[in-house]
Input
Amino acid sequence: MMKMGNMNNIIVRQAIVFGAEAHAGHLDDAGKDYFLTHCWQVYEIVKILYPEDFELQAAALLHDILEDTDVTYENLVSEFGVDIANLVLEVTHERRADDTGWYFPHLHSIRGIVLKFADRASNLSRMEEVWDAERIEIYIKKSKFWQSDEM
Output
């Protein structure tokens, strides 16, 4: 019989394969493999903070998959279950109607907020070399996911 920890590690391994395949050929602004740099870094941050939360770790690996690939929410539910799919949906942004930035209408849980902060930390740390100060400032202003859409 398989122990629960091993079963959960399978979920993380499955997310690695699924995410790498979905993001194949996707490069970041520095020209590096997007999944191996950004998605992996978000996973590493989450893994340090929540070493026993394998569903959150899997969601970290998949966090940009709805925004950047053809994978749908329904695909995620089918492959990983509702909990992981919902975590990914929580951190999936939508553009504001006036194009002043993004908002996150589904972001509501502590786990989702932790995942979004890990995502932002990764983005800022990786892009320091290729983004100038003005672009970083714009990114921060457009990324105020902790504010309501009305603010």
